[in-house]
Amino acid sequence: MQKRVNYLNNKDLLKEIHKSKNTFCTFTQPEHHQYDVILDDIDKINVRTTAEGKRAQAKRLSQIAHEAAMEAQGKKLPAKEFEIDYKKVAKTDVIFRIMTFDHIPEDLTRKKTKKTVADHHVKLNFPPFQHWKFDDNDNLICVGKSHWTGDLRDGKFALKKGKATNELAKMWMKLVDRYATRGNVRGYTYNDEMKGQAILQLAQIGLQFDESKSQNPFAYYTAAVTNSFVRIINIEKRNQNIRDDILEMNGLNPSWTRQNANDDGTDPALRNKED
Questions:
Q1: Alpha-carbon torsion 176, 181, 183, 186, what sign?
Q2: Where are the extended beta strands (E) located within 6-52?
Q3: Are residues 191 and 232 in the same domain?
């Protein structure tokens, strides 16, 4: 069964965001990159959150087995046949992602007024974290750090170690291209400028999506693209108003937009909002 490629769904977006962030991380073992539960403090690791992690891992492994079987057999299969009991997941296999700045260097000069923990540290491209798990002696050990290179104990902070994956970049471009075909923006002559600004914005904030707060990166990216398009529209409108003012001051005819606005007595900015 041929797998359908869809660059604009949350499942694939989350997968590529995870891959991209992993390029900025160091793990003791390759399999430790996959977290099961996200917490904001290591002290919140307890029986309840461990059980939550087991359920999440069992669900993920069940989905992987189900998808692999359907691809191998080339037909749809009932998902129940591949369900894994979370009680069979070992406690030592659960990976906890802890959102923390403990391993990030301080930068007290970056912001004069500090309102959050992040304001006290070096500016990052995405929220930092560490991965923890239980060892065979029931002790918690750190098995991964973001923005890190080398050994977890003797390594060092690395801000520009990784990069966004090619697939994630394609998704950003696909999202911008589709948004640019919307009826309210496709008629502008500076459509390409709006697309360029949106892609630049996604490249800057694309990895800042926080999986601990939302599982909907599509909405996050769409909001960023919308703001980029509106920003360019507002800049172009201001420039057009300045040009029209100069033309009118010199006794020349302004743009058709200004002339039509003068004829019907409507502010072009308000009329565009109504449209």
A1: positive
A2: 25-27, 37-39
A3: yes
Angle in degrees, CA 193, 221, 129, rounded to 5: 130
List the alpha helices (DSSP H) in the chain: 10-22, 47-73, 166-179, 191-205, 217-249, 256-264, 268-274
Integer angstrom CA distances of residue 37 from 33, 134, 269: 12, 14, 48
Q: In this structure, is residue 97 part of a structural domain?
A: yes
Residue range(s) defining the domain that contains residue 266: 166-274
Question: Residue 8 corresponds to which tokens in the numbers above?
Answer: 């604009």
The predicted-structure confidence for 2-59, as pLDDT tens digits, reads as follows: 445 555 899 999 999 999 999 999 999 999 999 999 999 999 999 999 999 999 999 9
Cα distance between residue 100 and residue 38, in whole Å: 11
Whole-number Å distance between alpha carbons of 105 and 125: 14
pLDDT in tens, 181-200: 998 888 888 899 999 999 99
Cα–Cα distance for residue pair 147/241, rounded to 1 Å: 46
Angle (CA) 5-6-10 rounded to 5° is: 130
Domains contained in the chain, number: 2
Tokens (6 digits) for 23: 């390029």
The H-or-E segment that residue 131 falls in is strand 129-134
